[in-house]
From TrEMBL:
GO terms for molecular function: chloride channel activity. SUPFAM superfamilies: CBS-domain pair (SSF54631), Clc chloride channel (SSF81340). This is Chloride channel protein. Its main location: membrane. The lineage of its organism: Bacteria, Pseudomonadati, Bacteroidota, Flavobacteriia, Flavobacteriales. PANTHER family: CHLORIDE CHANNEL PROTEIN CLC-E (PTHR43427:SF6). InterPro entries: CBS_dom (IPR000644), CBS_dom_sf (IPR046342), Cl-channel_core (IPR014743), ClC (IPR001807), ClC-type_chloride_channel (IPR050368).
Length: 595
């Protein structure tokens, strides 16, 4: 930053400290963050739609029906951008935000702002079967993180601003401010207090206003409730809840299964080629898998399943409703496959909107099956299409309240509130009891890097092992004599534990001062007795690359030790003391809760 700009920023900060309270400044920043996140969302949508419209008018897409090759082109452009500009592997948008909150104190690289605005439209615009919500949230989060850094905001407030950015992005895309706030609470584990509620509300309103300003009254879904909830349909909504739960479990397992399948392909070029071809084949067979899929959902909502399915190799059979049902069910199955393949091939995007597409197809399938069984039952296909979306969101993201309020706001009222609660709650309960963590959080939870609503676990997650390691322990070589050990280590140490290492600095044991005290003044033993004679096995060992803070705390509890050695890559690093661990825990707890 130029000197003149630094001086101007410094004067601005001084003026702010003197004239604006911390609380007021957070409110101002939450409005700014909401506006910028909303602007990022609008930019993503417009750039993507521009690419799609340009391709749709082209010869390749509309006349020769060769659009199935477009994903390879889009993925290639993303690959080139990542290789020569971004220069590091793309990460899942929301998961990377959660990791930055837990382990980087909310610090997100500035380049993530631009990367999401470029890579996601190229992926989706050229037919990648992913959504734009995740990249919109990630871009907004990067903006808020760097804005907080610019104004010297502390880590806790920076985390709040990142949640505000997510609320602003979601409110802008769906024009649903309440669901946006709830998403921030459910997914980012925010405490719903007045301290966080008002900034989230301000950011959400700002995001919606940004959307209205640039897009007018344009809405994603043209829908109004034509048939209210009837008590006699309750059983069918329970069935839909169970169905969406099964689909949610399938969605999650398929996601991790396909990513695992692509792992042997080390080269990004091979992943791009294999993934791009696989997506192209799926698009040729099932055109609605192209891009995000909002037009597919809208066509189902107005009852036009022929338009929703598009031109397929099975067009001549669409007069048979059961063929239509089979094709819609195929979309339910293959949307998860196409989405994950896009990610595995190197594309950028989110899972939220693909989840909605899959849920809409499944809801419509269930309604069509009920209406065509010949048993005299009749349900609203558009209602089931909407509520199917809620069921998948609740199950896949483990966010039932977000699902309920999002669909309620999209419909412009609460006429479907009861069936939404029935389906979403059943889907969530079954999925949560089957799969502990969702797609966003599973890998973070396995590494112990996930912040949850459990304050104890959240505080432990925020703590860093690097801050706790003490390195002022004098090491002892296992082949030292007693005299050498006393002269070179014991006499120069203020500690009562001595780690024993070999010639490769690997930890082989420890020696306690109490164990050598009675032999210290027996000079006859100085040359004849080796240090290894007094060595014992440590009660536990902390492995730097494996143990998270919860595991470390458990090791102290189980062993009863006051000091435990730390080993990294097989080599001794230092010790962690229980007193320092508890002190750090208490300090982090105060910072986390504000008490």
């Amino acid at each position: 930053m130029p000197t003149q700009n630094k001086s101007l920023l410094k004067r601005l900060l001084i003026w702010r400290y003197k004239n604006i309270s911390e609380k007021t400044f957070i409110y101002i920043l939450s409005v700014v963050v909401g506006l910028l996140a909303g602007l990022a969302s609008v930019t993503l949508k417009n750039v993507t739609y521009f690419i799609e419209a340009s391709l749709e008018k082209g010869i390749i897409f509309s006349q020769n029906q060769l659009y199935f090759i477009l994903p390879i082109i889009g993925l290639t452009l993303v690959y080139l951008y990542v290789k020569f500009v971004h220069k590091e592997r793309l990460k899942h948008a929301v998961s990377s935000i959660l990791f930055s909150l837990s382990k980087k104190r909310g610090i997100i690289a500035r380049k993530q702002i631009l990367t999401q605005l470029i890579a996601a439209p190229l992926t989706v615009g050229f037919g990648g079967s992913v959504g734009l919500l995740g990249p919109a949230v990630a871009s907004g989060a990067a903006i808020s993180s760097n804005l907080g850094k610019l104004f010297h905001i502390n880590a806790k407030t920076r985390s709040l601003l990142i949640a505000c950015a997510s609320a602003g992005a979601i409110a802008s895309i769906f024009q649903s401010p309440i669901a946006a706030i709830i998403f921030a609470v459910e997914v980012f584990s925010m405490d719903l207090t007045m301290l966080s509620m008002l900034p989230l509300l301000l950011a959400s309103i700002s995001g919606v206003l940004t959307s209205y300003f640039f897009l007018g009254n344009e809405v994603l879904f043209n829908f109004s409730i034509s048939r209210a909830f009837e008590v006699k349909d309750t059983l069918f909504y329970i069935v839909l809840g169970v169905g969406t739960a099964v689909a949610s479990i399938y969605f999650t397992k398929m996601y991790f299964g396909i990513l695992k399948l692509f792992k042997p392909l080390k080269s990004p070029k091979y992943r791009l080629l294999v993934g791009g071809l696989a997506i192209g084949i799926m698009l040729y067979m099932i055109p609605p898998l192209y891009g995000e899929g909002f037009s597919f959902i809208n066509n189902l909502l107005i009852g036009d399943h022929i338009q929703a399915l598009g031109k397929t190799p099975f067009d001549q059979y669409l007069g048979n409703i059961w063929v239509v049902i089979a094709l819609l069910f195929g979309i339910t199955i293959f949307k998860a496959v196409a989405m994950t393949t896009t990610f595995a091939a190197g594309g950028a995007g989110g899972i939220f909107i693909p989840t909605m597409v899959m849920g809409s197809a499944l809801g419509n399938v269930v309604a069509k099956v009920i209406n065509n069984l010949g048993l005299g039952f009749s349900v609203s296909e558009s209602n089931f299409t909407l509520i199917g979306m809620a069921g998948l969101i609740a199950g896949v993201l483990h966010a039932p309240l977000t699902a309920i309020f999002l669909i309620a706001e999209i419909t412009g009222g609460y006429g479907l509130f009861v069936p939404l609660m029935i389906t979403a709650s059943i889907s969530y309960l079954i999925t949560k009891n089957t799969i502990d963590y969702n797609i966003y959080t599973r890998e973070l939870a396995e590494r112990g890097d996930l912040i949850t609503h459990n304050k104890d676990k959240a505080v432990l997650t925020l703590m860093s092992l690097d801050d706790l390691i003490e390195m002022n322990f004098k090491t002892v070589n296992q082949h030292m004599t007693l005299g050498e050990m006393l002269h070179e280590s014991v006499a120069k140490s203020t500690r009562n534990i001595f780690p024993v290492v070999d010639s490769h600095e690997a930890l082989v044991g420890i020696i306690l001062l109490d164990d050598i005290r009675e032999f210290m003044f027996d000079t006859a033993l100085y040359k004849t007795t080796k240090a290894i004679t007094f060595m014992q096995k440590p009660p536990e060992i902390i492995f730097y690359d494996q143990d998270n803070m919860q595991a470390i705390m458990q090791k102290f509890q189980d062993s009863g030790a006051w000091n435990l050695p730390v080993v990294k890559d097989g080599k001794y690093m230092g010790f962690v003391s229980k007193s320092k661990l508890l002190t750090a825990y208490r300090r982090e707890l105060i910072n986390f809760t504000g008490n």
